[in-house]
């Protein structure tokens, strides 16, 4: 008998019919003799609707009151799923984040889980009940309701799996698993059977939406094996776990694409110490995630500082930077939004040279210009024109023959999303 | 500077515009220098919609999961009202029942408040904030979310006023105050300036919907003056308070009408000890509120036992009684639903005789038959044909000249409602 955590997203519980589909799947696991804890998101578009409701009262609501409202979305979905299970004859009990023991800290709309006191959930499991926990939320030590930010339900699930010592954490989603690249961009994309935490982290951070990077980090920290799989059928998906093979068969795991980036150039920055620090400290204070930074010499005594920020943060970034441009005596602020970031990720890069060269070669062959390059130990990212993203993705995918033997790849992919949240980067 | 508790019902916060109307009224009290705590219900028909949502998943949901869902209604309305106040520049903070310190016990959908630990609410008030508390809900000592049942928001408000030692508890409603009778039934109805707790309790329990009897009882217990007034204008309403005048000017205070009653007759009950106890113990166990009980001798060795139950409880009452009728050897169970209860209430009755005679005389003059009579120290109730209710109400109102000098009456009234909940009676 195993302890299993299952997480279902908003689409999976978007209607009464779908809630019953989830309930039947959960019940099957329970009837197979497992202890099952389930984490659910709010139904369908509930969270967006609740945001709109609050915004109809005020365009600048306090985070506290917004979190108070948003948390009701999961409170309803957990109770409906528990009710569906009970109706099917399967004992079940719902828990809000606070009741489940999710202790958070930080601002009400982007808090972090600092503790998971899963005593009540364990009791329910030991009493033969399915425990249904609200994703995306918790309460701080004063009982204040916090939300974890979008994608927080994945993190709730992985943290619960860690707290329960669960055998597996299954993330049910509307895709089959993790692909070498978003199949909507490159139809030859191959599903991966396994991927390492680090690779998944790079891919997720670089734009792959299938799993939230915070959840991957949490899984890595607590060695929770995460199984990303489809909520529409029973096939195996992709396991996200620690490195298993001593020798890797493949160098490259996956390609991530991110269209939601804006290039910002602070032109003509005086070549004095502390200029870059001044700019990025201000962006960090404004909680803007900066990625892909390049500093180039414009002419003697002046530099250009280039970087990217997510689309959503553009207005905030502009408001933050305009006074600084004046203050430090830079020439101007240039903003370019028709850019996209393409990243190649693979733990195998550590041992293999030539990946960067291959990537650049593939892009050059397609006559695609690279605007910024950034690398980590297991990733190379290039900023290119948004209109050439698909060509770039196809060229790189083909160059590295990523459609071959995907089962042997320890690799990854990705969805290009409008609401993508990049959690990493320099702050 | 006074401490004021204000309660607004679902209609008053039924839209963003209305929420702003409430916010402006609350802000005016705060700007006048008072400490203001506000209790709100869920917006408009939210509670009914949430009930329907749960019922779409299961016709027999568990009370616990239903309460989990229902409590979200107020959680949204408190946060929206707090947001509106903040938008107007008035510091405000919302509290769920659990956060406000409402400790409940009993079943999840009809729990009672056993404690109100208003420390956090007091802190907010002392920090110059308007405190906004979710009505209708609380949490038990294990953190389980409970609701108080319909009308519970009134009770939350009065209990909060007691916990804060508030100077007044204002219940804002869609009527101007308490009338001698529902003006829709008798247009000559007069608004009362004051009414005693006991009178209000009898009227509310007998069908007047303007204030929930539990709230009145709570007010009486803690000597909280309750001001029932309109949320549409600033005129004074009716004060519900302890007896103030040493001598009363009037005998009769108000008339309550209740159409939501069903007459049940258990016919041919053997004349043995314990028969009535058997019947009413079973009804009590099924949590059915029984009212107006009469036992009459049918013939030697056999009695008829007659009583009324609310419409809503009929199915449950029938299911409870049918096996008992067989078990105790009674002849049959007769159910009649075209009946109505009309009650005359007045603390002055204690010192004056002849009220019952006057009531019967007024009904006889209209040729209205009385099926059951029941009395308390300050109330006389008659069960009559539903079709004659309006005639009966007019005749009695006129007979006692209740349209005259209402300001001197210490009296009461009432609304005839389809969802009326009678909380008292024999269980």
Automatic annotation (TrEMBL), chains A, B:
Catalyses which reaction(s): L-aspartate + ATP = 4-phospho-L-aspartate + ADP
Biological or metabolic pathway of the protein: Amino-acid biosynthesis; L-threonine biosynthesis; L-threonine from L-aspartate: step 1/5; Amino-acid biosynthesis; L-methionine biosynthesis via de novo pathway; L-homoserine from L-aspartate: step 1/3; Amino-acid biosynthesis; L-lysine biosynthesis via DAP pathway; (S)-tetrahydrodipicolinate from L-aspartate: step 1/4
Residue ranges occupied by any ACT domain in the UniProt entry: 264-347
Positions contributing to ATP binding: 7-10, 173-174, 179, 184, 209-210
Pfam families per UniProt: AA_kinase, ACT_9
EC number: 2.7.2.4
Residues that coordinate or bind substrate: 47, 74
Superkingdom of this protein's organism: Bacteria
Coiled coil feature spans: none
Keyword Ribonucleoprotein: no
GO molecular function, one term: aspartate kinase activity
Keyword Cell inner membrane applies: no
Gene Ontology biological-process entries: diaminopimelate biosynthetic process; homoserine biosynthetic process; lysine biosynthetic process via diaminopimelate; threonine biosynthetic process
Sorted UniProt keywords: Amino-acid biosynthesis, ATP-binding, Diaminopimelate biosynthesis, Kinase, Lysine biosynthesis, Nucleotide-binding, Transferase
Cellular component terms per the entry's GO annotation: cytosol
Signal peptide: none
Family (UniProt): Belongs to the aspartokinase family.
Function comment: Catalyzes the phosphorylation of the beta-carboxyl group of aspartic acid with ATP to yield 4-phospho-L-aspartate, which is involved in the branched biosynthetic pathway leading to the biosynthesis of amino acids threonine, isoleucine and methionine.
Protein name: Aspartokinase
